[in-house]
Write a structure and sequence with these properties.
The complex is a heterodimer of chains A (328) and B (145). Chain A has 328 residues and is of the alpha/beta class. Chain A has twelve helices and nine strands. Chain B has one domain: Rossmann fold (3-Layer(aba) Sandwich), CATH 3.40.50. A four-stranded parallel beta sheet of chain B has the order 2-1-3-4, with helices on both faces. Chain B starts with 9 loop residues before the first strand and ends in a 16-residue tail after the last helix. In chain B, α3 links the parallel β3 and β4. Chain B is of the alpha/beta class and 145 residues long. Helix content of chain B is 37%, strand content 16%. At the A-B interface, α10, α11 and α12 of A face α2 and α3 of B.
């Protein structure tokens, strides 16, 4: 295809683990099919385009910007704002850009505590002269600058206008391909839609769904490391805290197929404003205890309830502006 | 932080059968209680989801009080046990993020109008002593909305 008529795509990563970039590469041979109709104009992790190259493009010169990772540094903010200006469509790709993701759990602590722990107190750190990163450093070769560490981590849509979301930690190749196909088809869904995934919950496509009892009643939860679950029986029925019933499907229940409970990376279903709150509601509904002591006992093995229900969505839920951040 | 003229806003969820009746009784008995509470009637305390409570806080309520029938007295037999489970879980999360003192659960029978008024009086006092909601309107901004 003539490069002039190819769809121009930019990829960018913010605060992320790199798994989302890996997920794009995981398309394997399908990536070549995509590349026949797509021209990649910016992809820091794989291609040698610089930010100046993006700046030189006209506004709206990129058709789709696929951005992963949460916004944690001033540099992220700067680049995504530039990409927003240059792009017709912006897609938040993966849990971190979509909802905040696992790095978003750092919002439970104050910025000073994070710096202090990571650079001075963590058991694996050796930092005898107590050096903390600075935004500006004077060296023999002149002044060097580092991006600023922002106060909190934000999902992409709290920094720029986002058109579509692709969920998952990371999005599976299947979901990615479906999302790209939708974007290339020209039949674009309503703004704000989640691409590539299902409208129904993980349970719906779970192979163990048939073994899920009509009424779940759990006296005490169990943790996945404590026993080997029966791979042919609903994990909830075995006492594992699986978030399949409240999580958007599309992953084909890949964690459950590997005998691990769903942790909710695809985020909430349509019209759910707070994933964690919905998950709490669900968990409460299956606890078979009648007093507070019993309920706390049932939850005993769930050592970090906030981390469990808000594992991927703390910076996007209702609590985002309410958290009294811990200083330890 | 709290100011002498700080009037907190407290959202009260009341079940139709017991606790709302208690509040009604407090009203018809002309029992005085602070105007800081905004009562929202629901059919059962188990109608109150964690999302509703968090939305109230996120929209600027200083505290939320969930009320229902005493255990065993639920009009729908087990509704309030479900409320208790939800509340216990929500409370665990709220404690973790420093909001534990802002949400409470209390049972009131239809005859406990006086106890409700008393409870609200002491609750309002306690909230006044605590921190202001980050989203609450300050008295300078027009106080109570």
């Amino acid at each position: 295809m003539n490069p002039q008529t190819k769809v121009k795509i930019a990829f960018y990563w913010n605060a992320s683990c790199g798994g989302c970039e890996e997920a794009i590469v995981d398309l394997g041979e399908d990536l070549f099919k995509v590349l026949e109709v797509v021209d990649i104009v910016f992809w820091p992790v794989a291609l040698d385009f610089k930010l100046e190259d993006v700046e030189k493009l006209p506004d709206g010169g990129i058709d789709v910007a696929i951005i992963n990772g949460g916004i944690r540094f001033s540099e992220h903010e700067k680049v995504v704002k530039l990409l927003r200006r240059k792009s017709k469509i912006v897609v938040a790709y993966g849990s971190c850009a979509h909802l905040g993701g696992i790095p978003g759990l750092a919002n439970l602590w104050s910025k000073a505590t994070i710096m202090d722990y990571v650079y001075l107190r963590a058991p694996s750190v050796v930092n005898e002269s107590n050096v903390l990163p600075k935004e500006v450093v004077q060296t023999d070769v002149g002044e060097l600058e580092l991006p600023a560490f922002l106060d909190v981590l934000k999902p992409l849509n709290r920094v720029i206008d986002v058109d579509y979301y692709v969920p998952g930690c990371p999005p599976t190749p299947n979901v990615t391909l479906k999302a790209i196909e939708t974007l290339l088809s020209g039949k674009l869904p309503q703004k704000g839609a989640v691409l590539g995934a299902d409208v129904r919950a993980v349970c719906d496509t779970c192979p163990l769904n048939e073994t899920k009892p009509e009424k779940l009643a759990i006296k005490e939860f169990r943790r996945p490391h404590a026993f080997i679950p029966d791979p042919k029986k609903c994990l909830l029925a075995q006492g594992l805290l699986c978030l399949g019933p409240v999580t958007r499907g599309g992953c084909e229940a890949s964690c459950v197929k590997a005998n691990m409970p769903c942790t909710g990376c695809f985020g909430p279903l349509d019209n759910v404003i707070d994933f964690g709150a919905r998950a709490l509601s669900f968990i409460a509904s299956i606890i078979d205890q009648k007093d507070e002591e019993g309920i706390r006992k049932a939850l005993g093995p769930v050592v970090d309830l906030v981390g469990q229900v808000y594992k991927f969505s703390l910076p996007s839920g209702l609590l985002k502006d309410l958290i009294k951040r811990k200083e330890v | 932080m709290s100011k002498p003229d700080f009037e907190p806003k407290i959202i009260v969820f009341a079940c139709n059968w017991c606790s709302y009746a208690a509040m009604d009784l407090a009203g018809t008995s002309r029992t005085q209680y602070p105007h800081n509470v905004r009562i929202v009637r629901v059919m059962c305390s188990s109608r109150v989801t964690p999302e509703m409570v968090l939305t109230a806080l996120a929209e600027g309520a200083d505290a939320v009080l969930i009320t229902g029938c005493h255990p065993g007295d639920c009009h729908y037999l087990v509704g309030n046990y479900k409320t208790l489970a939800r509340y216990t879980l929500l409370k665990k999360v709220l404690d973790e993020v420093g909001l534990g003192d802002r949400v409470r659960l209390e049972w009131f029978s239809a005859g406990e109008g006086e106890r409700f008024a008393q409870y609200v009086r002491s609750f309002v006092e306690e909230v006044k002593k605590g921190a202001l909601s980050p989203k609450s309107s300050t008295p300078e901004e027009g106080g109570l909305r």
